[in-house]
Amino acid sequence: MQHYLSAFRHYADYRGRARRAEYWMFLVFHLLVLAALITLGATVFEEIFSLALVYYLATVIPLTALIARRLHDVGYTGWLQLVSLLPFCFIVVLIFMALPGTPGPNQYGPPA
């Protein structure tokens, strides 16, 4: 939960670095909340489906900022996440998210 809230504290901060744990824990919690809202919307209340859409739209900016900071930790530019817009190229970005960060400071700052 701490990593999830950390992403919102750095809401639109595309500078700096983010560790693997911060990214993966945010992603797991994000997907669980989204899946719960979609499931409830499909089975119980139709209004909750619109809540899932609102939740997703509210988390787009923190997620892209977190991905950019994670790419900085690996040593790549945050713009590389645009590659995931191409078909099947999101796998490349996913692999970069799993790589360990560069030890010590890099061009994007000291380790987080």
From TrEMBL:
Q: Which ranges of the sequence are coiled-coil?
A: none
Spans traversing the lipid bilayer: 21-42, 48-67, 79-99
Asked if the record carries the keyword Hydrolase, the reply is: no
Keywords attached to this Swiss-Prot or TrEMBL record, sorted alphabetically, are: Membrane, Transmembrane, Transmembrane helix
Q: Name one GO cellular component term.
A: plasma membrane
What is the protein name given in its UniProt record? Inner membrane protein yhaI
Starting at the broadest rank, the lineage of the source organism is: Bacteria, Bacillati, Actinomycetota, Actinomycetes, Micromonosporales
